[in-house]
Amino acid sequence: MQPNNGERLAIKNFISIRNSNRDRQERIKLIIKDQIKQHITNKIKEQNHTEKEEMNDTKNDTKNDTKNDTKKKQDELREQQIKEDVKDAALYKDKPYNKQQILSELQSLELTTETIENVYQEKYNGVNATGLGDFIRGSYFLMQFCDDYNLTFCINIANHPVAQFLEMYQNKKPIVYKVLNRFELTNHHPHILDDNIITNVYDDSINNDFIHFLSKQRVFNRKKYVYATPYPRDLIDQKYKDHMKQILKPTNNLLVLVEDILTKFDLVKNNFIIIHIRYGDDYLIKSEEMISMFHLEIIYNALDKLDQTNNYFLLSDNNIIKQTVLFKYPFIKTHFNEISHTGQGIHLETNKLQNTMVDFYLISYARQIVAFSIYNHGTGFSKWCAETYNIPYVCRLLN
């Protein structure tokens, strides 16, 4: 049956509406697609903009960090300069020189390549020498000083009577320098610890004083001859000690005397303890015999703690002290040889000086040294022997 006209119109309208819906759906799809595409584009733009801003922020932060770092470094340099200025102000206050003068004098020393020689002899322009320990101490100072400033040093004991007992100076005639100045300044700043133990606080400002002193000294045979006794830094290089040991190497004759003492008292090298009591020049030089009971109490308090299974040997510049200590501690060994100060203008008798050097080398063979002194600088005789031969050492102030 064929559709009538009404049915045909209805079918035509249906098809038309369906097609219209399809077109509408396609347009909607296109619109949605365009919107999605636009949304993605916008997101990409936003992301790019954000990244750009972040990059700019990072650059700005980097610039700010760089500026801050630069400012911090400038502040640190400024602070360091202020500290140096304050230090210089203290270093050159009341001195007969200024910083520029010291730098100029040091440069002159470096350019002339002159040797600085520390000389040990009995007098310097009429001024007495001090003891052998002081000279050893000052020689270590000179070695460090010359190494610090790239200068050349020499240590010379040939002009002192002690040289007759040193192997290096055998068959060498002394040449006593009449025009030779003693460097009078020192950097001795004693500090007394608990139990009266003596130490020294090192002060390197002495270097400028010494540079200025050297600039005033005359040159002979490309050398400046001096007598210097300042304190060296606490840590002394082993090469300096080895050099000093070569200079202090005793003659065979003196070694025989030392060996005789070791044998007589049954002492084994590096296996006995030295007790050294420096009671002062009033007894050694002026023969005064007063002994302070207070001083004895300090000595007794330390010696009461001794381990009697060890071997002890007592050395002192005071025979009364020796007798007193031995009476209370009979296990301690000693001898009563007459000794002499090596400085202070003392007339040096060969036999007494020989005994003094025997004591020095007995100390050099000790395992440990326990010292006492009435002086706040201690006793250089045993201190610098101990330093040279790497022996554990402690010194108490009798005060």
Question: How do you describe this structure in short?
Answer:
It contains 11 helices and 13 strands. It has 399 residues and is of the alpha/beta class.
- Main sheet? 5 strands, parallel
| Residues in helix, % | 40-55%
- Please count the beta strands (DSSP E, at least 2 residues each): 13
Count of discrete structural domains? 3
Question: What is the annotated CATH architecture of the largest domain?
Answer: 3-Layer(aba) Sandwich
- Provide the structure class: alpha/beta
Shape: elongated
Distance between the termini: 147 Å
In the predicted model, the low-confidence regions spanning at least 5 consecutive residues are 283-287
Helices, by number, come to: 11
- The top level CATH class name of the largest domain: Alpha Beta
Radius of gyration: 44 Å
Strand order of the largest sheet: 11-10-9-12-13
Describe the structure.
- It is a single chain.
- With 399 residues, the chain is α/β, with parallel strands linked by helices.
- The protein has 3 domains: 1-50; 99-228, no CATH class; 250-397, Rossmann fold (3-Layer(aba) Sandwich), CATH 3.40.50.
- The protein is built from 11 helices and 13 strands.
- The protein has helices spanning 5-91, 99-112, 132-148, 206-215, 238-247, 252-264, 281-284, 293-303, 319-328, 350-364, 380-388; strands spanning 115-119, 123-124, 127-128, 152-156, 181-183, 190-192, 198-200, 223-228, 273-278, 312-316, 333-334, 368-373, 393-397.
- The protein has a 5-stranded parallel β-sheet with strand order 11-10-9-12-13, with helices on both faces. A 4-stranded parallel β-sheet has the order 4-1-8-5, covered by helices on one side. Strands 2-3 form a two-stranded antiparallel ribbon.
- A hairpin with a 2-residue loop joins strand 2 and strand 3 (127-128).
- Helix 6 (252-264) packs across helix 10 (350-364).
- The termini are far apart.
- Mean pLDDT is 85; it is low at 283-287.
